[in-house]
Amino acid sequence: MDALGVVVNPIAGMGGRVGLKGTDGKLTEARERGAEPRAPERARDALTTFSRHAPDIPVYTAAGIMGEFAARDAGLEPRVVYDPRDEPERVGKSVDTPPDPTVDPADAETTAADTRRAVRALLEAGVDLVLFVGGDGTAVDVAGVLEEQEQAQAQAQEQEQAQAQEQEQEQTPMLGVPAGVKIYSSVFAVTPRDAGRIAAEFDRVESREVNDIDEDAYRAGEVRSELKAVVPVPVAPDVQSSKQLSSGSVDALAAGFAREVEPGRTYVFGPGGTVGEIESELGIEPSPLGVDVWRAGSTDSEVEGDGDTDGHLLASDAAEADILDVLELPATVVVSPIGGQGVIFGRGNHQLSPAVLERADDIVVVADEEKLAEIATLRVDTDDEAVNEELRGWQRVRTGRFTTRLVKVV
C-alpha cells in the first residue's frame, strides 16, 4: 500500500451511552443528555497502531475533527485534502474562498455530505484504502462514493474498450473502525487497534456487505436491516462477519436463570433476544434493544408496582447515567454476545460503560448453543483499555438450564 485515506464521523456513537440507540437526527438531544464524542479517540487508537506497523506510509485525511486531529495525536503528519469549512453553505462564501482561519476546525458541524466529499477527495489523492471511523450510516456514505468511483471507471472503460473484470478489481477498498451505535455491516474491524494493524498489513481483499438499519424502528425495538452495497474489504480474521439478527430457542436457559436469581441482587440486563427471554421469564417487559435494571425481591415478600412478580424494575431502556443512579451492590450485568461477532461489550450496548462494569461485582454471559457454536472467541471493545484487559481471559457462558461452556475473551 502506498497511501492511506482516513475520514472520521465525529458524532458517530454519541447516542449510545445516553440510550438513544443512534445519533441520526438525534444529535441535539444526545448533547442535551450529556453525550460526548467517542469517534475521535477511537480514530487515534487505530492510527497509533497503524503508525507503529507502517510508519513510512503517507496518510491523507480531512481537516480538524474529521481526521487531522486524530492523525496528529497518533504522531503522524497527515496531508489534508478536504476541509469542511470550505463549503459555501456554512458561511455563505464561494468555493474558491479559503477556510476562515478564525474558525476552529473542532467547532465545524459536519454532515454526511462532508463525509462523502472527504472520501471523494481521498480517492482523487490516490489512496489505496479508505479507513473510516463511524458506524453503519458512515459505512453507507463511504460505500456510496466508492460505487461512484466504480461506475466512473466502468464508463471510462467502455470508452477505452477495456476488459470489465480488470477494471472492477481497481475499486478502492474500505475498512471500518467501529465507533457508531449500529455495527451490523461486515466491513468493520473488531477493535480500533485491529483496524490499524489490518490497514498496515493487508495484502488482499474480498467482497463484503454494507448494511444499515432504520433507526426509528431500532429505537422502537425492531431491527430492519437492508443491504446497501457490496464493497471490497481487507481480508483478516479480525474483520467481523455480518451481525446475525436471530437466535435459537433459549426457553430452558431463561427458566434456569430465573430459578437462580439472588434475593436483593440488582440485575442489569443488556440488549438482545436471549437476555430478553430471561427478563420475560422473570415477569419483566424487556426493552429489546435497550438496557433494563431490576432488583430481585426477597424470598418471602413481593415488591409491588412494575409488573414483575418477584422484584422491582428500577430503570427501563436506561442510559448510562440512569444505570449508575440506581446501581447498588450486589449487582450482576447480564449480556449475550452479538451473533457472528462474539462481542459482549462495545456493540449496541454502550450504556454498559466502563463505569457500569467497574461498579458491578458480577458479569454473566448467556447464549444458546447454536449461536455459541459459531463463535470461536468472545471479544470486548469498551472505550477503556484497562477495563478491556480486566475482562479478558476465560469466561463461563451459560447455554442452557444446567449447562455452561468456557469461552476465551480476547
From TrEMBL:
<dbReference type="Pfam" id="PF01513">
    <property type="entry name" value="NAD_kinase"/>
</dbReference>
<dbReference type="InterPro" id="IPR039065">
    <property type="entry name" value="AcoX-like"/>
</dbReference>
<keyword id="KW-0808">Transferase</keyword>
<dbReference type="InterPro" id="IPR017438">
    <property type="entry name" value="ATP-NAD_kinase_N"/>
</dbReference>
<feature type="region of interest" description="Disordered">
    <location>
        <begin position="151"/>
        <end position="171"/>
    </location>
</feature>
<dbReference type="GO" id="GO:0003951">
    <property type="term" value="F:NAD+ kinase activity"/>
</dbReference>
<dbReference type="GO" id="GO:0006741">
    <property type="term" value="P:NADP+ biosynthetic process"/>
</dbReference>
<feature type="compositionally biased region" description="Low complexity">
    <location>
        <begin position="151"/>
        <end position="166"/>
    </location>
</feature>
<dbReference type="InterPro" id="IPR011386">
    <property type="entry name" value="Put_ATP-NAD_kin"/>
</dbReference>
<feature type="region of interest" description="Disordered">
    <location>
        <begin position="21"/>
        <end position="43"/>
    </location>
</feature>
<feature type="region of interest" description="Disordered">
    <location>
        <begin position="79"/>
        <end position="111"/>
    </location>
</feature>
<protein>
    <submittedName>
        <fullName>ATP-NAD/AcoX kinase</fullName>
    </submittedName>
</protein>
<dbReference type="InterPro" id="IPR002504">
    <property type="entry name" value="NADK"/>
</dbReference>
<feature type="compositionally biased region" description="Basic and acidic residues">
    <location>
        <begin position="79"/>
        <end position="93"/>
    </location>
</feature>
<dbReference type="InterPro" id="IPR016064">
    <property type="entry name" value="NAD/diacylglycerol_kinase_sf"/>
</dbReference>
<dbReference type="Pfam" id="PF20143">
    <property type="entry name" value="NAD_kinase_C"/>
</dbReference>
<keyword id="KW-0418">Kinase</keyword>
<feature type="compositionally biased region" description="Basic and acidic residues">
    <location>
        <begin position="23"/>
        <end position="43"/>
    </location>
</feature>
